[in-house]
Specification:
By secondary structure, this protein is an alpha+beta fold. The chain has one domain. The chain is built from 7 helices and 6 strands, in the order βαββαβββααααα. A hairpin with a 3-residue loop joins strand 5 and strand 6.
């Protein structure tokens, strides 16, 4: 079974932030999650990207006085991403919209809907959330500048436009379009936003 939950990158500088402690968020200390410049990655089971009724992410921005980026990951297959910052506000996009569409379509078919209707409804779900990769990448560069990093939009767009092909066909794709888990897309996005990794001793 894959990972379900929200991953949050925040420049906490080691502080305990109430928006995280109130929800018993866990600090991620695995290799890909370890970041420098005071950035830390937290994990919690709730979906804070969609249905964040108490405004935990905006609270984090206010508490840290810095940009925050979060992704709700569904069974390691796809994710819903949100970036927030004090000046430029909030933007959202999918991590692997194609896989999200297929999962929603197949679920609706399993519930008895025709494949054509299910595909149409799944497409509407995708269109109803966030920005397409190119537009989201532009907003992401603004997010990065506000965080203190000057980064190009191209690599970010490549991450956001990547998808997980089934089976051995994954090996035929270019490296930046190849991944196994949606969490890997999130950590690749952090790399391209400029958040430095901490090298293991």
């Amino acid at each position: 079974m894959g990972y379900w939950g929200t991953l949050i990158a925040v420049q906490s500088n080691g502080r305990n932030l109430a928006a995280l402690t109130d929800r018993s968020a866990e600090l991620r200390v695995d290799g890909s999650a370890r970041r420098g410049d005071g950035w830390q990655v937290y994990s919690l089971p709730d979906n804070l990207v969609v249905g964040d009724t108490d405004g935990a992410l905006p609270r984090l921005v206010k508490e840290s006085d810095a940009p925050v980026v979060a992704a709700y990951v569904a069974d390691s297959d796809y994710g819903q991403l949100a970036g927030l910052s004090p000046v430029h506000g909030q933007w959202e996009t999918w991590l692997d919209a194609n896989t999200a569409r297929r999962f929603e379509r197949d679920y609706l078919v399993m519930k008895g809907m025709s494949k054509a209707d299910a595909d149409r409804q799944a497409q509407q779900m995708i269109a109803g959330f966030g920005l397409p990769p190119a537009e989201a990448a532009k907003r992401a560069t603004q997010w990065a500048r506000e965080a203190g990093y000057a980064v190009p939009a191209g690599p970010i767009r490549q991450v956001l436009a990547s998808r997980r092909p089934p089976g051995a066909s994954a090996l035929l794709r270019l490296p930046w379009k190849r991944y196994v888990f949606a969490e890997e897309m999130f950590f690749a996005l952090l790399d391209n936003l400029g958040l430095p990794r901490v090298v293991n001793d």
